[in-house]
Amino acid sequence: MKQFIALSLTALTLGSAVAQSQGFDADRPGGAPSGWTCGVTGGGQPRWQVEAAPDAPSKSHVLVQRGRGDFPWCVKAGSSVADGFVEVSFKSLDGREDQAGGVVWRWKDGHRYYVARANALENNVSLYYTEGGTRHTLKYVDAPVAAKAWHRLRVEFAGRRIQVSLDGKRYIDVEDSHIDGAGAVGVWTKADSVTAFDDFIVSGAAR
Fold this sequence. Notes:
By secondary structure, this protein is mainly beta. It is built from one helix and 15 strands, in the order αβββββββββββββββ. The protein has one helix at residues 2-12, and strands at 20-22, 36-45, 48-52, 61-65, 68-76, 83-94, 100-109, 112-119, 124-131, 134-142, 150-158, 161-166, 169-175, 184-188, 194-205. Strands 1, 3, 4, 6, 11, 12, 13 and 15 form an eight-stranded antiparallel β-sheet that branches.
């Protein structure tokens, strides 16, 4: 752990490493947030929109995915991070097939990126890389993910090292080299998951 903290701190000094935090309170409900690009890996019709939410961690708007698709995503336009961290608050609202909330990083396009997600139907946390539009599993770990409750998902990444935490507890710590270099960051869902997101934070440096 101490080694990874040192790696992270080194990475964050390589370039602009000011943490950027975004809620969605300044965005008008009913459409996608300003400065974000939304789409889907595979097929489907995702519907990303800002909504009012009285229980939002930072009141009073959140970003919600209410359509469906293989792997819907929404990334922060212009973001470019190789090493650093990304985290978000998420809440599973509904979904028969899945109830997933995740984050993406080193996102090159809708066919190539890393994703970590938590699933309230399966009670687990998992890590994947997507290459050529196909998702590949790196690791699954059992974890309590209550539906209709807010959780905090965080991923730290530096070089090959990836660590995934949920609600302050680390569940995944692996090395992988499938996707390197800087890429965009954002949020992610799966299938018919209806998931709300708030308090998105990213910090890091582009190599």
